[in-house]
Each structure stands twice: as C-alpha cells, then as structure tokens.
Design a protein that fits this description.
single chain, about 400 residues, alpha+beta, Rossmann fold, Dna Ligase, domain 1, D-amino Acid Aminotransferase, Chain A, domain 1, eight-stranded antiparallel sheet, four-stranded parallel sheet, about 35% helix, globular
Amino acid sequence: MSKQEFTILCLASYDKGAEFLRECKRQGCRVLLLTAPRTNNAAWPRESIDEVYVLRDIDGRWNDEELINSVSYVARKEKIDAIVALDDYDLEAAGLLRDHLQIRGFGETITRNFRDKLAMRRRAWDAGVLAPDYVHLVNESQVTAFTQRVPLPYIVKPRGEASAIGVKKVTSHEELWKIYEELGDRRSTYLVEQFLPGDIFHVDSLMYEGKIVFASVSRYGKPPFEVMHGGGIFTTRIVEHGSADEKSSLKANEDVLRAMGLHYGASHTEFIKSNADGKFYYMETAARVGGANIVEMVEAGTGVNLWAEWAKIEIAYGSKPYKAPKAKKDYSGIIISLSKQEWPDMSAYNDPEIVWRMNKAQHAGVIVKSPNYDRITELLDNYQQRFYHDFHMSLPAPDKATA
C-alpha cells in the first residue's frame, strides 16, 4: 500500500494532537479528523487535515450508536486504514469503531486496561505487578474486608476519569461509608485503594511490535492529585540518567505494558516510590502521550517528539520496520501554574535554559533544558517560589474533564 493510499481517522474530542496530525500528513497520509462541536474551531493544523467531521457529544462523550452510524457512513467513500484516539476520552470510541469496522488495533477489551482504573488494578495484580491494594466499591462485605486489612488513608477513584479528576482522599472509615451511601447506584463505577505516600514518577514510552523502543523517566514535583486538589504548581523533570530510580521505573514500566497488552503506540505510565519501603508501585497507565505539555518537556531533553513518532508507528504498524530516533541525554523540566493575570508578563524569566514558553490564557509556564541535572533542579525550585508570588492562583478541582 502506498503512502498516498493510507487513510487515518483521528478522534479528538479535546484540543490536542496537532503534531500527530502534521506528521501523518508529512508521511503522505490522507488525514481525517472527527471532533466535537466545542473543539471544531480549535487551532487545528487545517493544512494537514483533508476532512473534518463534527459529531455532537454530551458531557464529553459521543453516543455509541450515532458514532458507529456516522463513521460507517464516512466509510462508504473513505477506506479507513487506521483509527487513533488522541486523548484518553476517545479511547473507548476508537476501540468500539475498530471492533465494528474490523480495523487493526486493539478493541474494547484491551481498551479497558487503559481506561478503566479497576481493570488496570485487576490486570496488574493478575500479572504479579506490584500495585496498591484495592477493592471494587460495590460489595459491602468486600469493602468491609478491605477496611479491616488495609490501614487508612484511602483513595476513592472513578473508574472512567483521567488523571486525578474526581479522585478523593479518605481519612476515616466513616467518611468512606458516607461516600459509599451517597454514590447509590453509581457505586459500581468507583474503586477504593490504599494510599501510599511517596514520590510520583512517570514513564513516557513508544511501543513497536510489543517492544519498548523509547522510554523517558521523569518525576513530578508534587503528585498530580495534590496539584489538582490542593491548588499547587505543576512541575516535572527528567530523572538522572543511570540512576536507581530510572532503572526501577523502566523495569516496572516493561512489566506493566506487557501485562496490559500494548503492542503499538504511545503510553504514559505512573508509579509511586513508596516512602515506607522504597519500592515502585504501579498507579495507572494510558495508551496515549502524557498531558500537561509533557511531550514538549520530553522532546527538550531527548530530542524525541512523542506525537510525531507515535504517528509513524501507527502508519508502519507491523507492515514495515520502525526505528525510534536516538535520544539525547540532556535534562529538562517544566513548570505550569494557573495565573491571576489573563496574559502574564514573563519577561523577567530570561535564563538561557528556557526553551519553551506557554501561550495560554490564565496560565504561566516554561520548559528549561540543560546538560546538568542539578541546574534543572535549581531553576525549577527558584521558579516555583517566584511563580507563587508573580502569578499563582487556584480553582476548585473539577469533578469531570473540561474542554
């Protein structure tokens, strides 16, 4: 099949993945984009998209029947060779469509391993991957047994949200049972797990034919849960190359992706290094690139753009060889904060290590790059103090994703 004949349908109910779309076009693909009304006017790279389709959604979700009928109608004229979800909330839609149209790639069953936090936990435990103890928040006797064997505090999580959205920390059994009662018929859509204090690491990977062909390990400054629910400032940085933390994270990442069944594509997987025993516990994974401009941060330190390489993998997909670019061994870090100014003046941040600046209303952010790990740490620590003074504001954490 020639490049010109390859048609890729990208699902994007949120505004992200522009570089993926550009790379598909650079590779000679016919690029179709399915998006939602609220993101139809986003700054998509229109020059890289052959057709844009808009399908109404409700609370960020497409109706399954309307989705199948709409894409099947498009398929009357378009020979769709691949379907890719550019965000967590599109994964289930992509799996549904792949199964219905019998297009290569994982379907609804494997999708659950990357969208359903209960399925993630069960699959990890079945495969012997170290992970926090948990219970499905549905059966009273099982929940009671969990509270008897697992010490407080706990984390209550919705099974289908991304990142720390909708997550609650519980510090008493009374609080847990109150949530249990309040959820009513929605109990089965939640789980509760052991809360482990510690540092949070993330591994951003590329997979081809079941092998990890690229992986970069980073550590959050504060856990995303604390940033979202405590109104903090988001930071993350690449860890020291060759360190014990890097080696442990890479090994844990291999175990997780093998257990979850990912063979092709990009992944963002999070681990906690427990303060109690120093071991790495699996938290969750996603079959997509990391959010919060982590792609740009990883590219600054490694020279590898995860969006672009993911596009190349989806196009090659076992039909021809793929080789990830050789990664540089520099260090990079990112800091982002909500800003009390609509368009904050960041001119005072002028260190030569700054390689990227955020251009988004009510946000302040930069990425720094250096061959020296300690310099990145110094800059981020300094900027965090200054950000609190110059820009920082906080808003209540959302219960669900917003565009």
